[in-house]
Structure formats: structure tokens, C-alpha cells
Amino acid sequence: MSDLHLHKHSEHSHSHSGGQDAQRKVGIAALITFTFMFAEVVGGLISGSLALLADAAHMLTDAGSLMLAYVGYALARRPADVNRTFGFSRFKVLASFVNGLLLLLLGIWIIVEAVHRIVEPEPVLSGIMFWVAVIGLLLNLAMLKLLHGGHDHSHDLNMQGALMHVIGDLLGSIAAVAAAIIIYTTGWTLADPLLSILVAVILLAGALPIIRKSAHILLQGTPAGVDLQAISAGVVEALPGVSAVHHIHAWSLTGQDRLITLHVVPKDRGTAMDLIPAVREVLKDRFGIDHATIELDLEPLDECDIHTLSAADHGCDHHGHSHEKHDHSHNTHS
């Protein structure tokens, strides 16, 4: 029995061949990023370019972040066990959250350093800066093509985080090329820190949604597009044998799945068990939720239980129970 239970949950952590392909691409990108980082450090130190040094620092964090994403894909394929009944599938979300934070911190560092360069301008050797930036630009374009691969990654936060790092590197290389050209043709060295600030702002704009989305998943927030009120009303409407649905909790492990727990109040105790598969069918067909834990409440409900989703209006605590009493019904757990 316990083995079957673990197997069911492990389905959420299983990664198909697409996950292996994504892992391979991320690993290659990490290796390329880490290798070229040294060239940018040398070029930045010799030329005195903040854009190159900022991009080198970005590449260092990117290499670590891409490796974190690589490990995330690897762990996500590990099966569930008695200590982690959902497996390691959520590690990808954790990796994307950390990557988002790194992008945020990097953007702030670039802005601070750029302001310092604006206050105290330094000479920049535009020739070296230009050629190193061009090589970086070409490599980043190749990595972007490799990672994107023509696939939709809108639901893979781990890949989104990896792509944002590469896009950030690409923008950094473009800024460095542009700054080198401006400095070479006009001698205006402020182009270096000013364009670096522009790249940092773009990084911050990309980091915030990744942090917000991954944090929402880690906090077990209700998945986007899941309306708990609509689910409650829909089950009652579809099944005449159900008098109420309450204590609904919906969440996602990876952002690509939907899980739900709910209590169902049957009108007839004699046919109560028949409601469990019927409720599962409604959840799957109407709401696209195929993983549900359903409890049957066989005791009469008080006002707080019926109005759990708006419990604050009925003097209930945050679990949906009345402050005057706590009714512990005899439930059948699916």
C-alpha cells in the first residue's frame, strides 16, 4: 500500500526526455559561460571597462546559476522515497528562486558600481573592449539559440531563470560593444557606466517576475487559473449527491501541475463512497486537475464550514472553524 502511494506521488517528479534535453543544454551553456568569463575579466582589467567587468561578474553568477539549474533537472528525475514523498521536483523551483535573487543582487551591484564610475570617470581602452565584447556577443547568441531551441518554456521556471541569465549576458555584451564604439568615435567614457545601468535595469525587470512566480509556488499559493469558489460551486452543481464542498486547498509543485485537497459533504451517507470517483472526474474534466485528495464529511456542518472560503465573514478562524466550537467529524479519506 505504501509503495503504491509513493509511486503515485513520484509521477509528479518524473522528468521525461524533454527534461534531459534541457539539462544537457543548460550544462553546455554553463561550461561555455564559465570558460569565457576569464577572457572578460582579463579584457575588463586591461581596458578598464566597467561593462566588461560587470558582464564578467554576471557570467560568473550565470555559470553558478546554470549549474544550479542543471542540478535542479537532475534531482527532479529522482524517484520519491519515504522522506520525500513528492520527490525532488520542487528543487527546480527553488533553483529558479535562487537564480532570480542572484539576478537581483547582480543588477544592484552593477548600478552601484556604475554610479561610482560616473562620479569618478576612468579611462577606457575601447579597442580591447570592443573585440572581447564582440566574441561574448557571438557566444551568448549561440547559447540563447541552444537553450531556447524553438520550444515554449513559459511553464518551466528553471529554464526561464537560465534563459534570463543568458539574455542578461547578451545585453551586457551588446552594451559593451555599443560603449566601445561610442568611446572610440567620441571619447565619451560615460557611455560605459550609463549603458551598464541600462543593462542592470533590464536584469531587474526580468528577475522580479521569476522571484515572484517561484516564491508563490514555494509558498504553496493557489495556481494561476484555479478559482476555488468556482470549483466548489461546480462540484455541487455537477453532482446532485453533494450538498457542499469546503476546506479547499490548491497548490503546485513545479508550476506545471495542479494539486488539490477538499472536503465533500454527501446528502446520503449510504452512497457517499460513490462520490469520490465522481468528484475526481469533475475536477479532471471541468478544471483540469488530475491529482486530488478528497475527504467525506459525514457530520452536519456549521456555518463556518460551509463558508470556509469566506470564513472571515462568519467569525471563523483561518482554518474555517468556528471560534465557539471545533467539530471533528468522522471522515473517510481518499
Low-pLDDT residue intervals, each spanning 5 or more residues: 1-16, 306-315, 318-334
Strand order of the biggest β-sheet: 1-2-3-4
* Global Rg: 26 Å
In round numbers, the mean pLDDT is: 78
Specify the biggest β-sheet. Answer: 4 strands, mixed
Order of helices and strands: HHHHHHHHEEHEHE
Q: How do you describe this structure in short?
A:
The protein is an alpha+beta fold and 334 residues long. The chain is 61% helix and 8% strand. 42% of the residues are buried.
Topology:
Blueprint: H1 2-10, H2 17-47, H3 50-76, H4 91-119, H5 126-148, H6 157-186, H7 191-218, H8 228-238, E1 242-251, E2 259-266, H9 275-287, E3 291-297, H10 303-306, E4 331-333
Parallel strand pairs: 2-3
Antiparallel strand pairs: 1-2, 3-4
Helix pairs in contact: 2-3, 2-5, 3-4, 3-6, 4-6, 4-7, 5-6, 6-7, 8-9
